[in-house]
Amino acid sequence: MKIKTLSCVVKRAENVGIIEQDVQYDDGDQYQTLIRLSRGGICGSDLHYYQHGKVGNFAVKHPMILGHEVIGRIIKTNSPNLRINQKVAINPSKPCHSCKYCLSGEINQCETMRFFGSAMYNPHVDGGFTQYKVVDNTQCIPYPEDIDDEIMVFAEPLAVAIHAAKQGGDLKGKRVFISGVGPIGCLVVASVKALGAQDIICTDISQRCLNLALEMGATKVLHANDDFSEYAQHKGEFDVAFEASGHPSSIERCLEVTKAKGTIVQIGMGGNLPNFPLMTLIAKEINWKGSFRFVEEFNTAVNWLASNKVNPLPLLSATFSFKNFEDALKTAGNKNDISKVQIIFS
9 with 17: CB under 8 angstroms? Predict the structure, then answer.
């Protein structure tokens, strides 16, 4: 079965377009499903590929389809657990299932992970900003017909947030500090609240983001230029801090306000920290943990969205047709006014 499809691609920094491709589905292939994509969300990594032609050290060397926050309907499948026309959220992770991390259940650490829309390998791994895509059956997570697509597109970023929240341990009754409340930080707010956090204090340089954090469940918000000294008393006031900006000053503040023997979960990606306050980390015996993508939390995210345990819609800023892909990317790049931008494919 061969289908002509239009795909949104990035060729190099600030060079995007729509190309026509063939998508082939073979009934004889094991464990595969053909999806007609309906919606996708633009992520920060998509913007990095568009604006800079790379994410970290992974540069775009040839045309690559972007996108890893996508949902759609099943066109064809050989899975007994899936059905034609069923709505599914697409897990963009395709681990090898054979390395030591996959075998121990830590698939987000897979040594050869093939993640949608990534230039890590050459040839690159195409993403989901396309009309049709063949995926593994296990990447398809069904959700109810009556759940709006604009809600379920948040499954992937919510999965990232839930995984980060769980890195903080048992949050029931805990005081939580979140530094950096862009889309992921705001979804962390909703996640830690759903997991039982008692107080959720947030900070950011953007008042718009702080207002969104309140809508997502924050107890109190503070501008990054405010005085945090009361929270630094007695070696810190918070049981767990989530650093979601990657800025050195934000990391330092988290170290100041997290209590001795507390936990800091590092989500934000920044550069090197030549003046890192290592002595504070040591003296307060802080647990500093990284958080990367997700494991079973993708399924959890689908369930939470389907049951309205988390409402992500305050974060949705704009919607575009995929034919206006570059306009969508430019709009998403306006961080002063925009949180999340979605693209409609069908």
Answer: yes
Contacting residues for 232 by C-beta, under 8 A, at least 6 apart: 256, 257
Q: Please count the other Cβ atoms lying within 10 Å of the Cβ belonging to residue 295.
A: 17
d(CA 222, CA 210): 8
Question: Which stretches does DSSP call E strand in 152-296?
Answer: 175-179, 199-204, 220-223, 238-243, 258-266, 287-290
Question: Do the beta carbons of residue 220 and residue 178 sit within 8 Å?
Answer: no
Out of 1.20.58.760, 3.90.180.10, 3.40.190.10, 1.20.58.100, select the CATH number for domain 2-154+312-344: 3.90.180.10
pLDDT surpassing 80 at residue 26: no
Nearest to 220 by CA among 198, 239, 236: 198
**Could you identify the residue written with the tokens 């389809």?**
65
- Quote the tokens at residue 106: 């830590």
Pull the structure tokens for residue 5. 């499809």
177: CB partners within 8 A, 6+ apart = 201, 202, 203, 231, 238, 240, 241, 242, 254, 257, 258
pLDDT value at position 21?
Answer: 85
Question: Which band of pLDDT confidence, cut at 50, 70 and 90, is reported for residue 34?
Answer: very high
Find the helix or strand (DSSP H, E) in which 303 lies: helix 297-306
Question: Measuring CA to CA, which residue among 192, 49, 178, 196 is closest to residue 116?
Answer: 49
Amino acid at residue number 322: F
Strand 2-12: give its sheet, edge to edge. 15-24, 2-12, 64-65
Regarding pTM above 0.70, the answer is yes
User: Which amino acid, residue 301?
Assistant: A
Q: Which two tokens stand for residue 233?
A: 């008393």
- What's the pLDDT score for residue 30? 77
The tens digit of pLDDT for each residue in 41-81 reads 999 999 999 999 999 889 999 999 999 999 999 999 999 99
At 269-320, the pLDDT tens digits run 887 778 888 999 999 999 999 999 999 999 999 999 999 999 999 999 999 9
Q: Tell me the CATH number of domain 160-290, given options 3.30.420.40, 3.40.50.360, 3.40.50.720, 3.30.2290.10.
A: 3.40.50.720
